[in-house]
Structure formats: structure tokens, C-alpha cells
Amino acid sequence: MTETTSGPTGRKGKGSRKGLKIKRVFTTAGTHPYDTLEWERRDVVMTNWRDGSVNFEQRGVEFPTTWSVNATQIVASKYFRGALGTPEREWSLKQLIDRVVGVYTDTGRKNGYFASDEDAEVFDHELKYALAHQLFSFNSPVWFNVGTTSAQQVSACFILSVDDTMESILDWYKEEGIIFKGGSGAGVNLSRIRSSKELLTSGGTASGPVSFMRGADASAGTIKSGGATRRAAKMVVLDVDHPDIEEFVETKSREEHKIRALRDAGFDVDLGGADMFSVQYQNANNSVRVSDAFMRAVETESDFGLTSRTTGEVIATVDAKGLFHRMAKAAWECADPGIQYDGTIQDWHTNPETGRISASNPCSEYLSLDDSSCNLASINLLKFLREDDTFDVERFTRLTELIITAMDISITFADFPTEKIGETTRAYRQLGIGYANLGALLMATGHAYDSEGGRAVAAAITSLMTGAAYRRSAEMAGVVGPYDGYKRNEQAHKRVMRKHAAANDDLRTIGTLEEPIHAAATGEWAECLKVGERNGWRNAQASLLAPTGTIGFMMDCDTTGIEPDFSLVKYKKLVGGGSMQIVNQAIPRALKNLGYQDEQIEAIVEYVAENGHVVDAPSLRPEHYEVFDCAMGRRYIQPMGHVRMMSAVQPFLSGAISKTVNVPEEATVADFEHIYFEGWRLGLKALAVYRDNCKVGQPLSTAKTEDKAEERTEAAPEVIEVPRPVRRRLPKKRPSETTSFSVGGAEGYITAGSYPDDGLGEVFMKLGKQGSTLAGVMDAFSIAISIALQYGVPLETYVEKFTNMRFDPAGMTDDPDIRMAQSVVDYIFRRLALDHLPYEERAALGVLSASEREAQLNGEDPAQIAAQVESYSQSASTGAATTESAPTAPAEAEEKRAPASEGFVADAPLCITCGTKMRPSGSCYACEGCGATSGCS
């Protein structure tokens, strides 16, 4: 985007420096960038799916016709400033972009970044073009604050510090609260605080960091509930050699046991439930900072010393492998703690003379000095894939240098939540350029995400981005000087630049797509080292990979951050309301690149639209299945596939990668140990692993009933004539039971009528207002099920077919035995199974009560628990009808139900704004409905 020249180096004598010479790449002189787009007026009306109430309404907003309805809604509702219904309210994307870019351009002009006013105008136009065309986006605080009367906060990521004094601990509470109040998140390392095994100067025993975590957690929970723009997010880190490390590791897993006990006792422990206040440590992500020495001790099964915070002496030893196992077990139980690899982090640190990198932001991608911040921006990679399926290296490089220039300018005018953070950030000028849509780019070009070719493409793009960013940083240093802390850290910074360049030299290309990208990256790193040797660098850090939650939706990205595609079928919002199901547009492009003809592509796309996966798609060769593997679905990417992708790009990033590796429910503690160990071996800086349903919720089951069906088939005698089934009606007076329920906020009732001596005979389900279409459909469904039961269809058949069926409303329930349901139908038939099927039948179908699951978790026999429950034993003789009375209707088409191995999103939280289930976005969650996030940018 910008071709630049720079004048002499030096911090003083600004008048003698030439500034940056900006060349047009996207724009044309005499044509305003907005005139390259077609614009239209739209009405934005966002409703709550539960009750239809209006959450947000602004009519007549102006957006390009190329922007989706979803992007329009998110930008209008979140980023437009001014009170609704007043003339001051922004109503056009042009106003929003003008507000932000105007501040960047004016600040750059006043501070000597540009060679002339003409160059400033070109910078202004190029930046506006890139934003309006969705080529990239700044992080959310920029859109919230820049150009408004609010503080000009541009950073989304913060790191704090805590020393071993009460004053410092109380300052931590205050500073964290200020950051949370603005809707951002912060991380902190508590390892300087003396342990509970050490003495105070007064002679008493210290409380230890875990004790002080309680106060910070309560503060975060209170401020989060105050209705900030986004949920508060926080990271707490403890070094592995801290004497309280074992208590820290199990902090959240113990609380998870408490939640289960409260749930089973009937307390309200739903998300935001009235009784959740007694559960602690739920507002933070916890991570253990492990050293290379510790990991080597794990590898050799050696002892490891825990050191005093006051004397530095070893005061206890632990079995390293045993402690590592406890970390993995705790994460297996509740997803915490994650791991941060200290050796790798410090090895790539550009400012070690100033201080160590002790902590990260809540999503683990920003790793830098204490009391610092980072502003982020992400590039939409798919915008640089040409029609001929080559990557536009030149435009990508120019956009990178334009963004880095703008991001550095923002530090000049930015405000910060505390003076300490402001001082550090202005002195080191940490930036976080990254990208989104990598998964979509790989699929569109026919690359499997988990493949050597896919990793080579990702690595080459990341190397080019960071090389161009640091080269531009060196050019800016020649214009406005290097960062204040550069001279002190000059040798270390140069060493890290050489490490990046060496990693680029070691990168091996496989296909034709990445060859020119890698060649350009090699040139950028050579120029970066040359110019940096002369000028130094303007920025201590340049790149990382953020989750790109809200801004990913703003750019209409198919995939966020480094993530693969979520699924092959998506839902697209329509301008007039409602939505339509569409097959990912990357699929036909991928098929074309793989050599398929138009007729074959059309047939495969039609198959995917109907089935949601590519297995057995007509004409599709099995060796191409892997190209279409997604984060969830019939074929999902294996956990180590995610780790290997992270490892491929990590050497080309200043920071780290926001990503959680999802594993299926049946994953073992040993699997966690393997993933965490491989993360260290492969050179990652941070890693978190999440097991599906590890939080309190209804477990999914992989139990199958094929074997039982086969046994019945083999035992059945040969029948020449099959008698017609006979309906057995219920008596006029029969026992029944009514159960009220709530699934994802939708309330309803189940009334189950039984034969006096022989099991379930009718089911009536109520959901929705009387007279509504939904209520009518549920009545009809109830009658159909009831008649079939009376004709002898086994209840277990319905349970097998309808459990795990996935559609909205879904989410948390008010049933202590079934904490999470994939849909109302999923809940209903799980409840019926618990009430009317014997334990053996339910266990085969994966439906267990809370007490049975607890027994299973504790290594006990759930069958003994079931035998003690009188209601189950009474219904055991009637709950499973025999196949002799089953009807012989033709086999129905298999209903679409999600296998237990699919998804890995059962525990995703519900959006606090609109109530829909969120989806993973890096190590956070993002809502596709309204753009709300759980802490990401």
C-alpha cells in the first residue's frame, strides 16, 4: 500500500528528517475511496430470540452493498457513537471511518510521520479504502473511543504487575477494576507474592497468592455484572516453582466439584444463577508458567524444587511428572490451568534488559513487559486471494506497512487506564498486527488445515507479515526515532530479529501458492535487518494472532484468527429478516482447484448442503476429504493438528497465539499431558486445552446400541408373515407426571401418562403460546409419539433418535440431571429416558442421572446408584418394550443428529446480550448474532 523513503536517523532535529513518502496502491488521485463502492440505506432491528423484544433499532443506516446484514448490525449497534434518536448519532459507515481515520491522519501530520501534506492525504485515503473494503480492522477500542469525547483508549490488551506488599495488591485490585469498567481485560503474574508456607515480617504466616485471588475474583464478578460494553476478562499466572503451585493448579477444579454438589442439592448454578456467587475463581483464566528446567524434569521423571519468594532458596521438592499430571488432570476436569512456556517466551524477548515477560493478556496472545498494553489490528487474508488463486503479495505487504504506521501513530495520541501502563507503552510502543480468515483461505486453495502444505502457506504469510511490519518499524525509527527503551536493549532486539530471519530461511515451501510469499518474506527480513541496523526499530513488538471476535464479524470473515473453518454449512442473515442456510463459498472454489468439473462441483455442494459433511459425496475422492475438515462436524481436525499449525507460525510472531485446542469428551488425562508436552517441544509460547462437556453440563455419549440390536436380530426366529401391530389404548384413569422445564430460557411442560402396570403410554409436550404455530406443531408431535408408543414402538428408539438433535433454543436447563441440552427435543427425551427406562438401557444410550455421573467420575459403579433409586427400579420392567410388538413400517430416513464426537461446543456460554449460544473464537467466545464477545477483540 505504501512505498516509503526515510531520511536521516536521530531523535532530535525533526525538521531535518524527510518523513515517510506514501504511494497510492488501492486508491486513485482525484477519486475519493468511498466512491469506489456502491452504498445503500438499511434498517437495523435486532430482537431477542426469547421473547421477540427489540434489543436495538436504528433505521436508515448507510453501508456498502457488499457488506453483509450481520456486519451492518454489529457495526451499527456497537461502534456508532451518539445517543439513539438524536442528530448526534452516527448513521453511516463513512462517518465512523472518518471519525477514526481523521485522528490518525492529523496526529501523523503533526508529529512528522509524513514527508508532505500530500503524503498525509494519500495515507488518509488508503486507510479509508482498506477499512471500507473490509481489508482489515482495528481492534474494538479504536472504534469505541477514537474521535469521541471519551478517553482515546486504543488498546484491548493489558498486563499488570503485583509485588509482595499489601499496597501493591490493593493497587492491583483497583487497576484491574478500572480496566474492566472499560470493557477490556488484563493479565497478571502473582509469583512475587510470598507463599502461604512463608512467614510475614510480623512473624505470622502469609496468606499466599491464591487467597488474594479470591478478592480479585469477587471484584471482577461485581464489575462484570455492571453492564460494561463487553464482559471483563482476566488472566492469572503463577510460576511453576512457586511453593503454592499445587494449590493454584487445583483451585478451579475444586470449585467445579463444588458446583456439582450445589447443583445436585438443588441450588441455582446456571450461568448467572442466584447461587453462583458462592463459587469462586470463575472470572479468570489460570495459567501455569513452566520453565524449561521443569519440563526437562518431567521428561526425565526427576524432582523439582519450589523456591521461597523472600530468600530464593528451595523450601520444598515435588515430583515433576506428578505435578505435571495434576496440571493435566485439573485441565481435564475444568479446562484450567493452561500452560505458558517461559523458556520460549524469554528466548524471543526483545527487551530482557528492561525486565522479564511475566504474564499475558487474558487470551494469551500478548506477552510483554509488566504494566504495558497493546493495540491490535487484523488483516482479512481472503481479500488477497486473486481470481486465479494466487496470493497478492504486493498489496498484502503494502497494507501491512500502512497498518503498522497507523498503529504506531495511535500510541502517540492514545490515553491509558493507568499512568504506569501509559509510560511503559509509550516507551516500548508494542503493536499487535495479525490476521483472520486463514482457515477459509486454506480451504479455498485446496489445502487441508492439518497438512504440511497448509502449514507452509500459513508460515509463509505470517513471516511476510511480521517481516514487513518490522521493516516498516525500522523505517519509522529513521523518521521519528526508535522506541525509548531500544538503546538499552539494542543487542537483544537485533538477536531476536535475526532469529525471525533464520526461521524464515528454514521454512520449506511445498506448493506453488507459498513460493512467491516466502520469497517476498525473505526479501523483507533482509531489508528489515539492514534498515534496523542503521535506524533501530520504532516498536518493541509488532505481531501476534488475536481471536478477532467482533472485528472478524465486521470484516465478514468466514474464519477467525488462526482457526480452521467452523463448519461447512452456515446461516446467512437476510436484509428483510430471517436467515438462509448456505454452503461455505470456499467449497466450490476448493473443488475447482482440486480439478473437479462444474457438474461434479454442483453435485458435491448439493450433497454438503443436505448432509453437512463431504463423506460419501458423489465424485469426491476420499483423499480430498481432509481439505474440508473443520473444527466440528462428521470429520473434525484432530487436536494435534491445531498444535502443529500453531507451531508452524509461532517463530514468525512477536507475541503468541490466542487459541484453545478442543478435544472430545472421551479424551483422557494422558491426552492432555501429551498435548501440553508437545506444545513445549514444538516451541509454542502458550497453550490451553478444553475437553467437551468438562464443565457442569449434560455429557454426550458415544455408547451405541448396534450390538444389542444385532443380538435381538440373531435371536429372533424366522417369520414368514408379520402380524399387524395392535394399538393398546390407555385406560380412562391412568397415572401421569408433569415436569416443567427451561431450555436456553424457553419454558415448557412435559406430561407423561403411563399404563397402570406396564410403562409409558403417552407424552404431551407444551412449548410456546397457545394458538401459536410452535404450540400446534408440538401438539401434533405429542399425538404422533403417543400413538406410536401405544402401538408398541419402544421408548428407547425415540431416545436414540432424538437425543443430541441440535437446534435452537438450546443451552442451559433448570434440571439438575440435565444441565445442558442441544435442543428442547434433546432435553425432553433425555428426561423421559431418566424417568421411564432402566439403567442398562439408559447407560447404553449415554443418559445418566447426576448422581450416576458423579459415581462414574469417582470410579464407583453407577449401576449401584441406579439400583437404589426406587422410581427407576419400578419402571425397569416396563421401560423397554420388546421388538415383537414393534411396527414394521418402512425404515425412515435417519434424522440429522450430532454424533458425540462432533462439535466440542456444548459448553459454549450463552450470549449475555441476545441469549444465543456463542462459538469459540481463539481462547474466547464470540456471538454470531450480535457480535458480543467474552473478552476478545
Automatic annotation (TrEMBL):
Which part of the chain is the TSCPD domain? Answer: 731-834
Limits of the Ribonucleotide reductase large subunit C-terminal domain: 155-690
> Which cofactors does this protein require?
adenosylcob(III)alamin
Show the ranges annotated as biased composition (Low complexity). Answer: 876-891
Keywords (A to Z) from UniProt:
Cobalamin, Cobalt, Disulfide bond, DNA synthesis, Nucleotide-binding, Oxidoreductase
Q: Which residues form the Ribonucleotide reductase class II vitamin B12-dependent N-terminal domain?
A: 44-134
Superkingdom to which the source organism belongs: Bacteria
Give positions of region: Disordered: 876-900
Its EC top class is oxidoreductase
Q: Does the keyword Nucleotide-binding apply?
A: yes
List the GO molecular function terms.
Answer: cobalamin binding; cobalt ion binding; nucleotide binding; ribonucleoside-diphosphate reductase activity, thioredoxin disulfide as acceptor
Its GO biological process annotations read:
DNA biosynthetic process
Question: What catalytic activity does the UniProt entry give for this protein?
Answer: a 2'-deoxyribonucleoside 5'-diphosphate + [thioredoxin]-disulfide + H2O = a ribonucleoside 5'-diphosphate + [thioredoxin]-dithiol
Give a short account of what the protein does: Catalyzes the reduction of ribonucleotides to deoxyribonucleotides. May function to provide a pool of deoxyribonucleotide precursors for DNA repair during oxygen limitation and/or for immediate growth after restoration of oxygen.
Q: What is the name listed in the Swiss-Prot or TrEMBL entry for this protein? A: Vitamin B12-dependent ribonucleotide reductase
